[in-house]
Design brief:
Length: 273
């Protein structure tokens, strides 16, 4: 390992330890070897109205010559709001090139959430307090239920006159699993647009058992062939970084599937020749 790499690695480890100490349960390790982390940021820890999940990956060149690779996850974060926040984070990096910036990023996001809370009505992350909050299930990557106010969480606008593309896709329901006094159930549906994501969630919320669940974790990834990229988002619903972990798992599986598909295509071309 080069001297520069060793120095960057030490600085990264020191920053990771500091972030874990400062933010406690809000800070989550997704992949220690790949240095992928996730932190749940709220406008108010005790009574959150707006919450965002910041996922970061630290490249070898960080903090010396490269910024962290990041992703902002929140159902409500769209359009200009997402662009403005991304610009703010990039501006912080430019102003502090060569320095550790994760703390600055987190506090900037928190400031934005606080300002949003002061200017708007309570957002999709207002969650009911229950006696089950002491049950720790941070390692579960089970796609569970729904928020307390599902229609508000994703701003549902589903008309009765759906087009063919916007038809409700089939939903597969997993077998309920009970672990540490909590019950989990996975639900899976093939979706091709965000509208279908909302439709699937709305359909699931019609079930009273799902509607009354404590934590509602979901994630989705939609491949946009024209742009050769994925449209994706997730929701933790009070289960620290669980939605981010689920999304990360989906990303890994997608990468494996795409890699296998490319190999099949390559082998097919060879056989044709």
């Amino acid at each position: 390992m080069a001297e520069g790499d060793a120095g960057s690695d030490q600085r990264q480890n020191e920053e990771i330890e500091a972030m874990a100490a400062i933010y406690g349960e809000e800070w989550c390790v997704i992949d220690d070897c790949a240095k992928i982390f996730c932190i749940r940021i709220s406008d108010d820890i005790d009574d959150p109205k707006w919450t965002l999940c910041l996922q970061v990956m630290l490249p070898n060149e960080y903090p010396g010559t490269a910024p962290p690779i990041y992703q902002l996850n929140a159902p409500w974060l769209k359009g200009q709001e997402r662009a403005d926040l991304s610009n703010s984070l990039e501006e912080i990096y430019i102003q502090n090139i060569g320095e550790s910036i994760l703390y600055l990023w987190v506090e900037k996001i928190r400031d934005v959430l606080i300002q949003k809370s002061q200017m708007t009505e309570p957002g999709p992350d207002v969650k009911k307090k229950t006696e089950e909050e002491d049950v720790e299930c941070e390692d579960d990557l089970i796609l569970a239920c729904q928020p307390e106010t599902p229609a508000k969480a994703l701003d549902f606008d589903i008309s009765e006159n759906r087009t063919e593309i916007e038809e409700l896709p089939p939903i597969d329901h997993g077998i309920p699993i009970t672990d540490r006094r909590s019950t989990f159930q996975a639900h899976l549906a093939p979706v091709v647009c965000p509208k279908q994501v909302k439709m699937v969630l709305a359909k699931l919320y019609e079930n009273k058992k799902i509607a009354s669940a404590t934590h509602n974790i979901y994630a989705y990834r939609i491949y946009c062939e024209d742009k050769q990229t994925f449209l994706q988002d997730c929701e933790d619903d009070g289960e620290t970084a669980a939605g981010g972990r689920l999304l990360h798992l989906m990303e890994e599986e997608s990468s494996k599937a795409l890699g296998k598909n490319k190999k099949v295509r390559k082998d097919k071309k060879r056989s044709e020749h």
